[in-house]
Amino acid sequence: MNTLIIFDINGTIIQRDSRTDIPYSKSADELLNAYNAMKGIDTSARSDKDVFMEVLRNAGVVFEDRLWSKFLKIYEKNLELFKNTDIWRENAGSTDFINRLYNKGYPLTLMTGELRIGARFKLEKMGVWSLFPVGGFGEDALDRYSIAMKAVEKSRGYYARDFKEMVVIGDTVLDIKTARKIGAKSVSITTGSNRRNELEEYSPDLIIDDFYSLDIEMLF
To answer: Which residues fall within 8 angstroms of residue 172, CB to CB, at 6 or more apart?
Structure first.
C-alpha cells in the first residue's frame, strides 16, 4: 500500500473530555506547587510542550530545560498512576478501524501534540500503540504543521518509500488546514473540539460521526 494514513489521538482515537488530560494537569500543578495551573488554557490541537510553556508564562515562571526535564519525570509518574483507570476510552469504534487498516497493509502514523510517552500510555490502553511504529509528537515541534511534517519524514524513513497519497484523520479545523498544507486528503470526525458545522466551513474531503460504518474505500 502506498497511502499513508495519519491519525490524531485526542478526540479521534480516544474520547476527549475533562478527564483526558488529568495526568498532564496534575503534573503541572505538582511541578509549580499550584492548584489548577491549566485553568483557561485551550489544549486542542496544540503540542504539549507549547501548552507547558503557556502554563509557565501564566505562573510568571521562565522556561528552562531543567524544568521541562523535571516535568517529564512527574508526568511519567502520573501516567503510570492513571493507566488502569477509565480516563482514556476508545472513541467511536476507532480501534477496530485502525486494526482493519493495519491488517490490509496500510502504513500508519501519528500526528499529535501529545508527547510520545503520553501517546504510548494512551494507545497501549487502547491496544493499538504497536500498530503505529512512527509518528510526529509534541516534543518534535511546537506547531501542528511542523509536527505533521515530522510524522511524514519519519514515516518515509521507516517505511522506506515516498507516498503517492496521504490521508489525515482528525477532529479539528486545524487538522483540515494541516492536511491541505502537506498535500493530504482530510477526514474529519465530529467527536472532538469542533462541531460539524465548524468543520464543514473548511470543506474536508469527508466528514464522519464515527468509525463504525466507515469503509476503508471511503477514504480515497
So the answer is: 8, 11, 44, 45, 192, 193, 194
Cell 486494526 identifies what position? 99
Q: How far apart are CA 110 and CA 159, in angstroms?
A: 14
Residue ranges of the chain with per-residue pLDDT less than 50: none
Contact 2, 163 (CB under 8 A): yes
Cβ-count burial 174-207 (b if 16+ within 10 Å, e if not):
bbbbbbbebebbbbbbbbbbbeeeebeebebbee
Q: What is the pTM of this model?
A: 0.94
Whether the Cβ atoms of residue 55 and residue 37 lie closer than 8 Å to each other:
yes
If DSSP states are collapsed to H, E and C, what string results for 102-115? HHCCCCEEEECCCC
